[in-house]
Amino acid sequence: MRTHARGWALRVAMTMLFAGPPIAADDVSVLKDLTAVIALQALSCGQVIAVVRQGESDYITSCQDGNRYRVFSSLLGVVLHD
C-alpha cells in the first residue's frame, strides 16, 4: 500500500510540475515542486534553491545541502540523475 501511495503522490507532483503554461525556472512553485519530486525519491536535498531549465520537462537542480540532480520526464515517468 505504501508503494502505491508513493507512486500516486509522484504522479500528482509530476503532473503539477509539467502541466500547464510554461513558467520561469526561478518561480517559487517550480522550486517547491522539484523539491517534492526529489523527496519522493528518498534522495538527500533539503530544499531546491536553484534551477536551470535545460528543456521542456528537463531541469538541473541545486539543493540546500549541496547536492545537484537532473530531473526530467521520460515515457517511463520521472528520471533523476546525480
Strand neighbour order, sheet with most strands: 1-2-3-4
Cα distance, first to last residue?
28 Å
Rg, nearest Å: 12 Å
Low-pLDDT sequence parts: none
Coarse structural class: alpha+beta
- Average per-residue pLDDT, rounded, comes to 78
Count of structural domains:
1
Apparent shape: globular
How many DSSP-defined strands? 4
Number of helices: 2
Q: Encode the helix/strand succession as letters.
A: HHEEEE
Tell me the helix content.
25-40%
Biggest β-sheet: count, sense, barrel?
4 strands, antiparallel
Strand content: 25-35%
Describe what this molecule looks like in 3D.
With 82 residues, the chain is α+β, with helices and mostly antiparallel strands. The protein has one domain (2-81). Helices cover 37% and strands 32% of the residues. The chain is built from two helices and four strands. It has a four-stranded antiparallel sheet, covered by helices on one side. A hairpin with a 2-residue loop joins strand 1 and strand 2. Helix 1 packs antiparallel against helix 2 (28-40). The protein is globular, with a radius of gyration of 12 Å. The model has no long low-confidence stretch (mean pLDDT 78).
